[in-house]
Amino acid sequence: MTRSAGGPAWNRRHLLGLEGLSADELACVLDTAESFKEVSTRSVKKVPALRGRVVVNLFYEPSTRTRVSFALAATRLSADVVDFAASTSSARKGETLRDTARNIEAMGVDIVVVRHSAPGAADHLARVLDASVVNAGDGAHEHPTQGLLDVFTIREALGRVQGLRVAIVGDIAHSRVARSNIWGLRTLGAEVVLVGPSTLVPAAFREMGCEVSHSLDDVLPEVDVINMLRIQQERLLAAPFPSLREYTRLFGLTARRMARARPEVIVMHPGPMNRGVEIAPDVADGPRSVILRQVANGLAVRMAVLYLVAGGRPAAREADPRRAAAPRGEGREVLRGAAARTGGAR
Ligand code: NCD
């Protein structure tokens, strides 16, 4: 997927997963996102980086945060955004993903953001489309922008990622969020400990460089970050534990349990939360929670991803901050900052 030789740390056309991304590439996205975060604090929250480009949100699975976040990110970059919901489309009439995507592409689309229940759906589209493809979650495989926004939030809250100890708790087996977090965190030098019942945390995850524990109480006192995951009921084929009450008793993050954690620990959750199951409401809304910060950061991270995957293509010259006509002069310096950090090869 190399586009420009000797260029910046980022020269990929697609973002399909965090597996295989180098520490430099991850840092490039995080640094670019930091530049874009500043845009969200302005009264005019727009930069002209993707003016004239078309982004399509192709969502075959329910989504609240991710879908709105991608749409808003594209809008803030001045792209035209089309939101496609599979439930009201010809997918219901038997059209394949490939045909739907190729037809949409024929209308002149530059970036396809796809969420699908099949692992590998984003890779498949990247092979059949000329457009850039961004994976917004493919089955239990990967959810790279969630992984990136989680790492971004950790770096922002604790000042670093390297050397931190991160617990990811819950339904690891069915979680694309866990997989993307593991790749990102391990590459950036964090230790990852996966916590949950053995039915939801298979020992095979040790091969990804993680520790595995079946006791949240044992792990809590020694971690810097606790990332709580939802039980993915829709992906379960059989009951993985005797009852939800039993699960909550052993793995639910309650205020009482939080008393065992380090005072500076941060609590994360990708959403949607099942309050009272994996996390108690007073912890979710408590002083150590960064859950809404994750959502806010997701916007900046997705702006960075859309900007970077669109970069280096011929039309990307329009996105050159030195050429782009920023409204009221806004947006120039943030893009110059982002371009400088990424090697200025836009
Ligand atoms: C996650 C997802 O869809 O993978 N949510 C999200 O994108 N924020 C996690 C989940 O569904 O539990």
Rounded to an integer in angstroms, the radius of gyration calculated over CA atoms is: 20 Å
Low-confidence stretches: 1-7, 312-346
N-to-C span: 17 Å
Percent in strands: 5-15%
How many helices? The count is 12
Class by SSE composition? alpha/beta
Number of strands: 9
Q: What portion of residues is helical? A: 25-40%
**CATH-level-4 superfamily name of the largest domain:** Aspartate/ornithine carbamoyltransferase
| Ligands and ions found | N-carbamoyl-L-aspartate
Which geometry do the CA atoms define? Answer: globular
- State the domain count: 2
Q: Biggest sheet, in brief?
A: 5 strands, parallel
CATH topology title of the largest domain = Rossmann fold
Q: What is the averaged pLDDT score? A: 87
Assembly of the depicted chains? single chain
Element order: H for helix, E for strand: HEHEHEHEHEHEEHEHHEHHH
CATH class of the largest domain: Alpha Beta
Q: Trace the largest sheet across and list its strands.
A: 7-6-5-8-9
CATH architecture heading of the largest domain? 3-Layer(aba) Sandwich
Description:
The protein is globular and about 55 Å long. It has 346 residues and is of the alpha/beta class. A five-stranded parallel beta sheet has the order 7-6-5-8-9. A four-stranded parallel beta sheet has the order 2-1-3-4, sandwiched between helices. It starts with 22 loop residues before the first helix and ends in a 5-residue tail after the last helix. The longest helix has 20 residues. The structure holds N-carbamoyl-L-aspartate. The site of N-carbamoyl-L-aspartate has 11 residues, from helix 2 and helix 6.
